[in-house]
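Annotated sample (chain length 263).
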Amino acid sequence: MILIKIGGGAEINLQGIIQDLAQIKEKFIIVHGANALRDKLAEELGKPRKIVTSVSGVSSVYSDEDLIDQMMMAYAGVRNKRIVELCHQHGINAVGLSGLDGRCIQGIRNKGIRVYQDGKLKILRDYSGKPEAINKGLLDLLLDHRYVPVLTVPIIDEQNMAINTENDDVVRVIQKTMRAHTVINLIEAPGFLENKEDETSLIRRIPVVELEAREQQVDGRMKRKMMAVRKLCELGASRVIIADGRREHPIADALLGIGTVIE
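Output written by the structure step:
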């Protein structure tokens, strides 16, 4: 099995990705983002996203009810159904699901974000959390009947509420149960870069034993992504490929090793 994570950037070549996937003969699962679409929608609605920074210095999107609504529109709505539409146009019998549907991806809501406001320590509660389990029976049912699951956030928490989470963590939880041999992570860059400002500084191979050091080398979303890659390898993925989702043939090129290969 192959697990494909499609980033949510505006430049991702969805047409090329789905065209490539139509040539794949083995089972695969798609997990996708939609952050660029969500941010555009939020601006158009006059409700731009809010960023909060914890006392430990980690910045994240504040997931209030407005943001969950925007995610349902952008992730589980427009982007999910456009990907499903593309799949059917290329002969892939896809089923689009959020983590809510059939309790497909189950998580635990965060206890709160510790922040300083007006010089005081406060705990902010929002609708965000960590995925902990998947509905394997539902995914197996779809896969065994030759359907392709197309998954996205939000997920469902222990109180049956919709919550936001990181798709890198969703991929990790799916891998823990489904045991894909290859995980492809498509982003808006050639792969892992030695210098994030220089796209020619691609590192083509990273041994698993170097992952922790590489994780310390970067910051922001790439740091989180490399931590997720390290956990994927710990869970048994034999090959993780961070590849350019903007290319003409993103999946075919990734499987040829064009990008950063961790194995």
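Annotation: The chain has one domain: 2-262.
Annotation: The chain has a mean pLDDT of 92.
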